[in-house]
Write a structure and sequence with these properties.
The complex is a heterodimer of chains A (291) and B (478). Chain A has 291 residues and is mainly alpha-helical. Chain A has one domain. In chain A, strands 1-2 form a two-stranded antiparallel sheet. In chain A, helix 2 packs parallel to helix 4. Chain A starts with a helix and ends in an 8-residue tail after the last helix. With 478 residues, chain B is α/β, with parallel strands linked by helices. A seven-stranded mixed beta sheet of chain B has the order 13-12-14-15-16-20-21, sandwiched between helices. Chain B starts with a helix and ends in a 17-residue tail after the last strand. The chains are: A mainly alpha (291), B alpha/beta (478). Chains A and B meet through helix 1, helix 4 and helix 10 of A and helix 2, strand 13, helix 8, helix 9 and helix 10 of B.
């Protein structure tokens, strides 16, 4: 491979993977930042979205992007309902520390429930569909078109979510409740209401990521946990509660992952992931991008 | 005088102990072994009592031994009960039995599920149904046939769970037999359980040099792999590659593998086997379990212009690799794989016959051209909609042999385990036997099979047992 095409291959490969990782971690970070619920079933929610895209595409010939019109409101509603019916009540009745621990256990429970329900409905074998799988040559770097779409969509969605959180009133309120929960309440932000929106928005991000991965990965009911782990590593890299950290952390990890596989060995990807994870915890436990 | 008397007393005591042990041992041996009309008791070669009993008659055996200066009398009482006069059965100490229970730790969920269920469970289902349709399995201890019942539990593709489930099956559920677990690593892990409780396990999904070594060292008496070990498989694959290089001039070889026992052993054995044949892979690389993106590795293979490609993979990553290879247009002329592509029930729905064409699998044991294989293949197809893989036929045959041994030797699993290693069996496919390295072997067994556009895989290697000539893999269908 020529140096220019290799350069473009790494640049695009890193951006595609990074944009996806960012989107995956953004949802989890938002949920945890505002609600203090460490949703370890995050990956499973993504997989629900992947299965829905799969069903809409294979059974109704519906474009995956078009299926978002159904998936996203549905996910927002689930997040909203979970916070109102489950986690919110917990945080009202118990101390924060107790509620954090118990909500974590609840999320583990949710994870197993989702996995098994998906298994009952869709079976155990991998499901996938072909969506724009023809290849595109960009300056000698070859990528399937669906990856380019995922990369572009990932960048646009990350940008949109970041702008929403930075420049809109509800977004600012969400960030304020992450950074200064007590101060936010003092200036009139209704934290209890915001918690429900945060979980709903977090699940919307999972839904988007789930739809995107269904376009080029095969899915099983058990595929989700890998993405939860990736999201956690990205969040630790970027900093808990830092949305910009999630985006930059995701892109960093995407590049590291792609370069490791391209120049070193695929075997080393997880080793590098966990090495970064440990290094960040040792050197900068608050994350690279959190002030 | 005193010391002489002491010696005599000790001698007498030894004789007493020996006689008691012999008598008790004889009694238990009598209750376990198939009952016969004659009851013979032998003590220290000096006293022999022979009694002929009518079926149903209670009997008492009294053995009197005089060993100066002591006199010992041992009395054993039992009852002969039988249903037929020719083969009376002693049931006084046997627990009642109305079914033959098989424990099956199956990966109903998790990474192995996609392959375990179609590869093993479908075969076991047919097997059990067939035997139950014949009235069940005959247990000579009980002198009757009992239905087979399979107790299945989800091992969740987790090795620790496999171990715990097997121990539970054996110690709590008291199962009579075990169906195999899934995957090389899981088999390696359950060997100590099989050894501890002396339960034989015949399996299709273990391919390991380490397990062969354990068998040779006497540490794994109870595991019978139908597969060749990694070294033997690699030798067959390397022979084929050498032949292809010589015949076609293709030279760039790529080998990739999952970093799990199966992949590590298989790929490294292949590298050594290729080296022995003066061939060196241009790409030799592993990837971890749970990987979500293999496209950088595929690009490496493409950049290296790999023409002969071998992959040691597990179900999830096989599907991911095939999908991404197709997208990126990586289509080497020779493609040798294993999991998923070896089982039509999984391969055809996932990839379609056109995309599978040209793909070779590492275990093309049996062709479908013999009556036995054909019958089983049709039964399997009627049940699942697809033909079995060539090595599933060997699984079906091996379990039929094991069940026949149970009908002969009953629940004496140790005896059956010994016979499985030592005897050659007359099978519908010829004389077959278990070998620690070569697995379950019979004269016409193949080594590699290939998809050639049809519903079934064709055996292509070795050439003398091939059912079709090998073909190049065509480019992926658009």
């Amino acid at each position: 491979m020529y140096p220019t095409s290799l350069f473009f291959d790494i640049l695009l490969g890193g951006i595609i993977l990074g944009a996806l990782y960012s989107l995956i971690s953004l949802g989890l970070n938002l949920q945890f930042g505002v609600t203090k619920v460490l949703n370890v079933a995050h990956g499973e929610f993504m997989i629900i979205a992947s299965y829905l895209s799969y069903v809409f595409f294979t059974s109704f010939k519906m474009d995956p992007f078009f299926s978002l019109l159904i998936i996203l409101p549905f996910f927002f509603f689930i997040g909203f309902a979970l916070e109102r019916g489950l986690f919110g009540r917990l945080f009202l009745r118990l101390s924060v520390d107790e509620a954090v621990s118990i909500s974590l256990l609840m999320c583990f429970g949710l994870m197993f429930i989702i996995q098994n329900v998906l298994m009952l409905i869709f079976g155990r074998t991998e499901k996938s569909y072909e969506y724009f799988s023809q290849t595109v040559d960009i300056a000698g770097a070859i990528f399937p078109l669906n990856r380019i779409i995922v990369g572009v969509a990932g960048v646009v969605l990350n940008f949109a979510i970041y702008n929403f959180l930075t420049f809109t009133q509800p977004g600012r309120a969400l960030r304020a409740s992450i950074m200064e929960p007590i101060g936010a309440q003092l200036v009139g932000i209704n934290i209890s209401k915001l918690r429900s929106y945060a979980l709903g928005l977090g699940l919307i991000a999972s839904g988007l990521a789930g739809m995107l991965i269904s376009m080029f990965y095969a899915i099983t009911p058990y595929s989700g946990s890998v993405y939860t782990i990736i999201a956690l590593i990205v969040i630790i890299l970027g900093g808990f509660g830092s949305m910009l950290g999630s985006i930059l952390g995701g892109i960093t990890l995407g590049f590291v992952s792609y370069v490791t596989m391209r120049f070193m060995s695929s075997t080393l990807v997880l080793v590098v992931f966990y090495a970064i994870f440990l290094l960040i915890l040792l050197i900068r436990p608050q994350g690279l991008f959190r002030r | 005088m005193r010391s002489r008397s002491a010696v005599t007393k000790v001698g007498a005591l030894v004789v007493v102990v020996v006689i008691i042990i012999a008598a008790i041992g004889g009694y238990y041996a009598g209750t376990l072994a198939p009952a016969v009309k004659e009851v013979t008791t032998t003590v220290e070669r000096t006293v022999t009592t022979t009694t002929t009993l009518a079926p149903g008659a209670p009997y008492t055996t009294t053995v009197t031994v005089t060993a100066p200066p002591a006199t010992v009398t041992t009395t054993v009482t039992s009852t002969v009960t039988t249903t037929t006069p020719t083969t009376p059965t002693t049931t006084s100490t046997l627990p009642p039995k109305d079914k033959f229970v098989i424990g099956y730790a199956c990966s109903l969920t998790g990474a192995y599920a996609a392959d375990d269920l179609p590869k093993q469970k479908t075969v076991y289902d047919i097997l059990v149904e067939e035997w139950n349709a014949k009235g069940g399995i005959y247990l000579p201890e009980y002198g009757k046939k009992v239905p087979i019942e399979v107790k299945i539990e989800d091992a969740k593709s987790d090795i620790e769970t496999y171990i715990r489930l097997l121990e539970k099956f054996i110690t709590v559920d008291k199962v009579d037999w075990l169906f195999s677990v899934y995957g090389t690593a899981a088999h390696f892990a359950v060997v100590p359980v099989l050894e501890k409780y002396k339960y034989p396990m015949i399996t299709l999904t273990a391919m390991s040099d380490k397990i062969s070594d354990m068998i040779y060292r006497g540490e794994a008496h109870y595991l019978y792999s139908l597969q060749r070990n990694a070294k033997q498989t690699a030798a067959d694959v390397a022979d084929f590659i050498q032949y292809i290089v010589k015949e076609t001039g293709l030279k760039n070889i790529g080998v990739i593998y999952i970093t799990e026992l199966f992949g590590l052993e298989g790929a490294s054995a292949l590298r050594v086997a290729l080296y022995d044949r003066k061939l060196t892979p241009v790409v030799y690389e592993g990837y971890p379990i749970g990987i979500t993106d293999l496209s950088p590795l595929i690009k490496k293979l493409k950049d290296a212009n790999v023409e002969i490609f071998a992959i040691f993979s597990y179900p999830g990553d096989t599907i991911l690799f095939m999908k991404q290879a197709k997208e990126l247009g990586f289509s080497p002329k020779i493609w040798i794989g294993n999991m998923v592509v070896d089982t039509p029930l999984v391969a055809i729905p996932n990839f379609g016959k056109e995309a599978l064409t040209g793909i070779i699998i590492m275990w093309g044991f049996e062709a479908y051209d013999k009556p036995f294989s054909r019958d089983f293949a049709e039964k399997y197809k009627a049940r699942t909609g697809y033909y079995p893989s060539p090595h599933q036929i060997s699984l079906y045959m091996a379990y039929n042999i094991a069940f026949s041994l149970i009908e002969k030797y009953g629940l004496n699993r140790e005896k059956i385990a010994q016979i499985l290693w030592t005897e050659t069996f007359d099978t519908p496919l010829g004389k077959a036997r278990f070998d620690p390295e070569r697995g379950f072997v019979w004269e016409t067994r193949g080594a590699l099979a290939q998809w050639q556009g049809g519903d079934k895989l064709e055996v292509i290697w070795p050439l003398n047992v091939a059912t079709a000539k090998w073909i190049f893999k065509p480019p992926w269908p658009s």
